[in-house]
Amino acid sequence: MIKFDQVTKRYPGSIDAIKGLSFQIDRGEMVFLAGHSGAGKSTLLKLISGIERATMGNVVVNGQNLSKLRASQLPYVRQHIGVVFQDHKILYDRSVFDNVMLPLDIIGFDRRESTRRVHAALDKVGLLGKEKTNPIRLSGGEQQRLCIARAVVHRPSILLADEPSANLDRAYALDIMELFKSFHQVGATVVISAHDETLMADYGRRIIRLAHGAFAA
Ligand SMILES: Nc1ncnc2c1ncn2[C@@H]1O[C@H](COP(=O)(O)OP(=O)(O)OP(=O)(O)O)[C@@H](O)[C@H]1O
Q: In what helix (H) or strand (E) does residue 128 lie, and over which residues does it extend?
């Protein structure tokens, strides 16, 4: 469960990116986050994943109030969250396999179990057979799939995706949406941001619309 209670995020020297937002996303729900560029979508996802801290208010994730946790406790919360970043954050000096292995290395998983999980995640996104490839050789869509494999390899209960379909053609974008739907169907809470609402329309899910850090009218 994700709960925002009167949350404001003010970046140093900047305007309020999120302005007093309160809402709840239930466990196992799939929700879209819509809004113009700069509306606060990425910031909201960063607050859920603990990458950014609220300036005011409380962000509660899986029963933990992130606003009150010490920085040293955040990694434990993050173990239950997978993030597909807007800027990919792929390591181009490592193979596809090593990129997906990264979250398991950080958690300190047993090597044999890790290898099994990396293969399963790559299989799920259709990249099995490309383990040894350098990510630079992957197409844009394949790189997005690599990011999804890396986000789900540790089987998080919450999956966050920041504009995962940006720069993809419509057919590929729909494919990616189907992938997220399949993670939702096996129980994950899924939050996906996009500024193209036409992709969300077919899924009949709740859409949280933001404008300038507040709920859009
Ligand atoms: N690290 C930062 N420092 C200062 N201001 C920031 C920072 N990150 C975001 N902002 C500002 O906060 C506001 C919200 O940005 P955010 O990236 O959350 O919006 P967004 O809806 O995700 O936009 P986009 O669709 O372009 O990614 C913008 O005005 C942005 O300039």
A: none
CA of 43 to the centre of ligand 1 (A): 6
Superfamily for domain range 1-80+156-217:
P-loop containing nucleotide triphosphate hydrolases (3.40.50.300)
Contacts of 29 (CB under 8 A, 6+ apart): 189, 190, 205, 206
Cβ(35) – ligand 1 distance below 6 Å: yes
How far is residue 106 CA from its own chain's centroid?
18
- 18 CA: nearest ligand 1 atom: 14
Classify 162 in phi/psi space as left (phi over 0), alpha (psi -120 to 50) or beta: beta
Domain positions in the chain? 1-80+156-217, 91-155
pTM of the predicted structure, to 2 decimals: 0.96
Does ligand 1 have an atom closer than 6 angstroms to the CB of 42? Answer: yes
Tokens matching residue 182: 């399949």
Ligand 1 contact, 87 CB (< 6 A): no
Interface confidence, given as ipTM, is 0.97
Q: What is the pLDDT of residues 4-43, one digit of tens each?
A: 999 999 999 888 999 999 999 999 999 999 999 999 999 9
34 Cβ closer than 6 Å to some ligand 1 atom: no
Ligand 1 and 208: CB distance under 6 A: no
- What's the start-to-end Cα distance of the chain, in Å? 25
